[in-house]
Design a protein that fits this description.
The chain has 301 residues and is α/β, with parallel strands linked by helices.
């Protein structure tokens, strides 16, 4: 998903494997808890726009499948033919597990102009419709941005975006889709307690959070602590690399503390299934590197 800031760069080496046991069952990593009944299944996925090779959607799906990925997330709108994508999903077995509202940054639900907020709400509803069409489960939403102390400050961002999300909840419920609030560098919701308060105000499991594990490192609270605080609110999470000393870096080279992250995911009984890479993509070579880095972290290498 495109961001209004520089997010990441790839380096050449990868971190070592995590401690703890893991096994692979039918291509899906299964992280076993202390008792054999309490495991978590994590499937590797990529953002569809990371895939730079392939003439068709089916070609792209086949490529990521060959590299060990099991799912993708698609932008809405994103220039993808919906019928072609569903056909490719059925033919390849690659799951379209989520949709990204690609309008939310420019047409923000927190914008001072009600007309802009209306456009943003319409885009969110369209993303929900696309999500249902694909058979996906979540729509990733950045609810707003703190951009101006007078016209788009923290409280205004909270109030305006929450009002628009409330309007979309019945739409999402009817579609059987969940709205996943993402954590980004928008000067809004930078602490886990803020996210829990934001989500809980809606009083429905239709609204949860999409936790970008690496984005929040710069604000000081360890990612695993975020996960423990979010608990059942955690719907999905992004997989990349960030270091306070290096900035955006390769998967496995940041300050995420993946062993503790995976431990926290087990503790909260994460139900989102997918670990989705959000890094600079490319062709087969770049995507293979991403897949291998994720495998090392997940104990599959």
């Amino acid at each position: 998903m495109a961001r209004p800031f520089s997010r990441r760069s790839f380096l050449s080496s990868a971190a070592g494997a995590i401690a703890g046991s893991a096994m692979l069952t039918q291509g899906v990593p299964l992280f076993a808890a202390a008792d054999s009944s309490g495991g978590l299944r994590l499937k590797k996925a990529v953002k569809f726009n990371m895939v730079k090779e392939g003439a068709s959607v089916e070609d792209k799906f086949n490529l990521v499948k060959s590299l060990g990925f099991q799912g993708v997330e698609i932008d809405s709108p994103g220039g993808v033919n919906r019928e072609e994508a569903v056909a490719a999903k059925k033919k390849t077995g690659i799951d379209i597990h989520g949709v990204i509202d690609s309008v939310h940054w420019d047409k923000r639900l927190s914008d001072p102009d009600p007309a802009v907020r209306e456009i943003g709400l319409k885009a969110l509803k369209t993303a929900i419709d696309d999500c249902k069409f694909y058979g996906a489960t979540t729509v990733l939403l950045v609810p707003g941005k703190v951009s101006n102390e007078k016209t788009e400050n923290y409280q205004q961002c909270w109030d305006r975006s929450a009002a628009e999300v409330r309007k979309a909840i019945p739409w999402a419920k009817d579609a059987g889709v969940k709205i996943a609030i993402e954590t980004v560098w928008n000067n809004f919701i930078t602490k886990p307690e803020q996210m829990t308060q934001y989500v809980d105000q809606f009083g429905t499991p239709t609204v949860g959070t999409y936790f970008d594990i690496s984005n929040m490192i710069k604000f000081g609270v360890p990612p695993a602590d975020w996960i423990r605080a979010l608990g059942p609110r955690l719907l999905k999470f992004d997989f990349k690399g960030y270091s306070k000393s290096k900035g955006w870096c390769g998967i496995g080279e940041g300050d995420e503390n993946w062993p503790d992250v995976l431990k926290a995911l087990k503790e909260v009984n994460y139900q989102g299934e997918f670990a989705t890479a959000e890094v600079d993509g490319g062709g087969a070579k770049a995507l293979k590197d991403i897949s291998q880095r994720m495998d090392r972290i997940l104990g599959l290498a």
